[in-house]
From TrEMBL:
Gene3D superfamilies: Histone deacetylase domain. InterPro entries: HDACs (IPR000286), His_deacetylse_dom (IPR023801), His_deacetylse_dom_sf (IPR037138), Ureohydrolase_dom_sf (IPR023696). Residues 28-330 form the Histone deacetylase domain. This is Histone deacetylase family protein. It holds the Pfam family Hist_deacetyl. Belongs to the histone deacetylase family. It comes from Aquamicrobium zhengzhouense. CDD domains: HDAC_classII_APAH. It comes from the Bacteria. Keywords: Hydrolase, Metal-binding, Zinc. Its cofactor is Zn(2+).
């Protein structure tokens, strides 16, 4: 299978994050993508091509256009305000505060358009975000033009980004933009199967009231894990979207025996929906040695995930999401893809 990958991801680097009680180098760092790229070459998965440039017109259908303009302008405004280093928010319009008036200051705006401190900005962030978005759409084009599958090696990831908020290392929701693009090309139904360790709260929010995109999430129970405030089993969609969102939260310490049962349920949900296209939000932070996660999958489990997904016999777009054990991220992510091709 072909991989779409842009070296421009590397501009999103040198940023720090707030890790519970201290500021640390961001876990979501350039070497993640480079380890995956190296593994693709080592196993000969297929050609690696650079994305075509795409406009933001599809992105504007799943994100608030003002949010996208914010993403582009935030770092220059941060600098213009006399700040430097990593731009991150420290105040958010939660519950009783006003979420209907956009502040004019950069300190206000950066919190207004985020749900956590985890999507941080440096000088090269917007260009990297654009390139990641372009990779998703270029890989989607490969599937649309008849390839059975393609891999969008996206960095930064996307599934925590919602219609008008960044968070969890995510800015543009690459999988959501690709889903919208497939619909615009004539697909009637698209399924997004999110196997990242964390609940894809952004993807859920974007499609929560829609029936043309089914969202199936396999993840750590938000009662104990990030993003903490979405991803419970009773979130089934609303209005026209009722019945098209499915959450399969799992306990701390879940290993293949538990995780594969959830995958089996996810398989059945996707299969029953009879989508025209499948998008896999591919996170490999379910790995036993992931530094920020608490599941227990081992490297031999990832090809099994790929083989199971292939049994759906659907045109499939893989979109890279999380995974922070950089030494093994390539083995595990590419393991899913080689398993799919077996
Ligand atoms: N500071 C994705 O996997 N919490 N995002 C990290 C350590 C945020 C994960 C806790 C995790 C976000 C795409
Ligand atoms: Zn994750």
């Amino acid at each position: 299978m072909k991989t779409v990958f842009s070296p421009r991801h590397a501009g999103h680097s040198g940023n720090v994050e707030l890790d519970t009680n201290e500021i640390v180098p961001a876990y979501e760092k350039p070497s993640r993508a480079e380890f995956i790229r190296a593994r693709i070459e080592a196993v000969g998965l297929g050609p690696i091509v650079e994305p075509q440039a795409h406009g933001l017109e599809t992105a504007r259908k799943v994100h608030d256009p003002a949010y996208l303009e914010f993403l582009e302008s935030v770092y220059p405004e941060w600098l213009a305000a006399g700040r430097s280093g990593t731009a991150m928010p420290y105040v958010w319009p939660t519950r009783a505060l006003r979420a209907d008036v956009v502040p004019t200051s950069i300190e206000g705006k950066i919190g207004f358009y985020a749900f956590d401190a985890g999507a941080t900005f440096v000088a090269g962030t917007w260009d990297a975000v654009r390139s990641s978005h372009d990779s998703a759409l270029s890989a989607a084009s490969l599937v649309e033009s008849g390839e059975p599958a393609a891999f969008a090696l996206c960095r930064p990831p996307g599934h925590h980004a919602g219609s008008n908020f960044a968070g969890g290392y995510c800015f543009i929701n690459n999988a959501a933009v690709a889903a919208q693009w497939f619909l615009d090309q004539g697909a009637k139904r698209v399924s997004i199967l999110d196997v990242d360790y964390h609940h894809g709260n952004g993807t859920q929010e974007i499609f929560y009231r829609r029936s043309d995109v089914q969202v199936v999430n396999l993840h750590a129970d938000p009662l104990f894990e990030y993003p903490h405030f979405l991803g419970h089993a009773d979130e089934g969609g609303e209005g026209a979207g009722e019945g098209f969102n499915h959450n399969l939260p799992m306990a701390r310490g879940t290993d293949w025996s538990g995780w594969s049962k959830a995958l089996e349920r996810g398989f059945k949900l996707v299969s029953d929906y009879t989508p025209d296209v499948l998008i896999v939000s591919l996170g490999v932070d379910t790995f036993e040695r992931d530094p920020i996660s608490q599941f227990k999958l081992v490297s031999d489990d990832y090809p099994k995930i790929g083989r199971e997904i292939a049994r759906l016999r659907l045109p499939t777009l893989f979109v890279m999401e999380g995974g922070y054990a950089v030494e093994e991220i390539g083995i595990n992510a590419v393991g899913v893809l080689t398993g799919f091709e077996d």
